[in-house]
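Case study.
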Amino acid sequence: MKLKTKTYLSVLAAFAVTGAQASSSLSFTSWGGSYQEAQEKTAVKPFGIANKVDIKTDAYNGGIAQVRAQVQTKNVTWDIVDMQLSDVIRACDEGLLEKINPDIDLAKDKSGKPAKSDYLPGAINNCMAGNISWSTILVFNKDKFKGSQPKTVADFFDLKKFPGKRALRKSPEGALEWALIADGVPPAQVYKTLSTQAGVERAFKKLDTVKSSIVWWEAGAQPPQLLADGEVTMASAYNARIYTAIMNDKKPFEFLWDGQLKNIEGYVIVKGSKNVAAAKAFIKEATKPQALADLATSTAYGPLRKSAVSLVDPKVGKYLPTAPEHQKGSLDVDPLFWADNADALNQKFAVWLGRK
Amino acid sequence: MTNSTYTETLTSAEAKVLKRNLRKSERFGLYKALLLILPLFVFLMFTFILPIGSLLFKSVTDDVIPTEWPALTQSLAAWDPAKKQLPDSQTYSNLVVDLQKSIEDDGNSRVATRLNFQQSGMRSLIMKTMRHLDGMDLKDAKQSLIDADERWGQIGTWTIIKFSSQRLTFDYFLNAFDYTRDEFGNVVHNAPADSLYQDVFIRTIVVSLTVAVLCVLIAYPVASFLAALPSKFSNPLMILVLLPFWTSFLVRTTSWIVMLQTNGPINQFLLELGLILKPLELIYNRFSVLVSMTHILLPYSILSLYSVMKGISPVYVKAARSLGAGPIKAFFNAYFPQTLPGVVAAGILSFILAIGYYITPALVGGADDQLASYYIANHVNTTLNWGLASALSVLLLGGVMVLYIVFVRMTGGKGMKLG
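After joint prediction, the assembly is written out as follows.
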């Protein structure tokens, strides 16, 4: 009996507290896992406490299907979403996102430079405020190559010199770019080459040479696992996953910075959100140089604002995809190319996969 | 039955009253039963039939372009690409009018996404044309558009728009069968490098059938053994069947990954025994897909076979034996025919469940082991080509229904027995 009364009271108290605190509410959706945890620690919780906003969090797996469903059914439950640039472009084109004006909605840097000039090129547009740059990158298990170690993308495709299975993401994005780089196409020419029929064929031909040794992965947690289990000796992976494996789990993995494919990630607001003003205030706060640097420090993703780079913990600095020493041979994923060609290349890729 | 025996001994007047009362009470019972299932019916209607129905409808209806570009849709309806001539200048100016009108609500982008499903590059063509709209002269629309991008001077571009702007369309089904339209609107087979779905459907059926057969073959002796045991022994053993049944199939799939991997327990064990010299490739191929899918679907087969076998009296086999039949003959002539409904039920159940699987093949299968539902999920979540996803679903659903009907026919309409 006593227990029951206590429960009732605490439930009542909880209502009272949330009622008092939630002067407004906001929802924040990101990719889950350690990345979202870092975002909640560095941006979401501080903002919620400072502004007395009750922020609900949700996780998703990328893509614009859910946002589109919410906007089309006029039942918008997400306000802020962490989205990758290629999805942002499609969603923005389809009118699924609120517009963001960098001059008004984003904070200036310390020296008073407007956000527009503080951001790396392509990291903001009229629907998105960029936060970090992540990369899909080739990595290998040091223990498996005692002699010479792989250094270039071409080494990834060289089964004789560096034997063992490879793991690649089951997607044409990445596989085709690396195949061309390994075949001698300079990174700057990759998308131009892929725009032609002959270029696509060349890429698939190069992939044919390693096809029987590839294990295809789909979830970001798989490649570190496959490397650790000895299932493969080299893999493509998301940089932060490998960073965590090296730093926290002390795995003998090493990055092949050559041919790293950089992607841009940013905050967007779903069209028709009931809390646009609060969402904008959040984005302004969360994209301040210090906030981005904090996020980078705890995730090893590169901050997209130039003024944030010096604020990142130097121990993490050399692992960032945006670090100057890793830019040689790196490639920015071209979202416009993929917006145009993803449908056709996905189909070709699926057919190629199914062929013996 | 009881009713008619009574009427014989009763007078007709009494019988009438009795009959009426009986009907009344039966009707009351019927209403009560209906009322009881009403919530379920409403629930199914709103959570199952309506949403799935509307999604399936997307395979034949497509109103993006008719809604966003009404004028162009109308003028293109009258144009025939087979005549191998570009549309008239009115069509060109209608395009400019529609493009200008739809800038406001991002309608052009929706059209661009839709057209890009049909041919890559259409998206950027529309986006690029939008940027050239300022100050475009309607009278000279044709030349201005062709100046903006030469593709507006090609018949193929217009053919794609024409066939994508049909409100009622079967083109998604063409795509789902690996067919497409050429420059002049004729239906042609995809090039081999773009032909996917015929192989996918064949693969789906082959894998599902194999899994169903394996399930029945393995489940039969197990179920028969369980059914023959006294319940004192069979109940604890039944738990062993039910325990994996209650475990999430994701957990079971993951445990197969652990078991089968190159350095996993099975390979280690075989290496240890010296039976093999280097690890076998047990995972990321058809073998691992069949093993894990069979394991996951096995409880369904065992349970449906068990329920039938439990109802078979042992006296028939005993009678056959005492009349001189050998154990094999007794099994095939006296026992097996009685279990047939269970065999059919187990087979169909595992086949239908297998045909919809995609997580298991995605996790343990190789590149050429993905089933149809994998591509459906991919089109729903990633490419957002819901029309094609819906057409593929209709084919899958239709295929299952046809197979089911054929099966029921083959077994004389009473072949299936679920418990």
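Observations recorded in class. Chain A is about 45% helix and 20% strand. Residues 23-133+264-322 of chain A form a domain with the D-Maltodextrin-Binding Protein; domain 2 fold (CATH 3.40.190.10). We will return to this complex in the next lecture.
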